[in-house]
Write a structure and sequence with these properties.
This protein has five helices and three strands; from the N terminus they run H-H-E-H-H-E-E-H. It is mainly α.
Amino acid sequence: MSDDALWAALADPRRRAIVALLLERPRTVGEIVEACGLSQPGTSKHLRVLRDAGLVRVRQDAQRRVYALDPAPIAALDAWLAGYRRLWNESLDALGHRLDDVTGGPSDQREEPFPPGRRQPNGAAPPQDASSPKD
């Protein structure tokens, strides 16, 4: 398994959708077909690419094939991303400190994202405050 094979396998959005499904739990090919809306042959091709890259493993359960994520390649990708994550964290920390300097420091008060009673951009009703009376 090479890093190139891992990245190539994950480059396709349908394969990433399959990986996301398998993150929840192992699944049969039929479950993956149904959840992803792909044809059975198309799903099998994507699963073969993921298996060849080492991202998934398969076991036979009577007539069914059950696919599960193999955590080792994901851990290798996570280790590779750690340096970039550290870079972003340092940059975001520096930005936070700069904003604190400009605004006079972090606020001790919790800021509400929307004024009380106002609907959120997604149309959801405002959250109920635990201290407000219930209807």
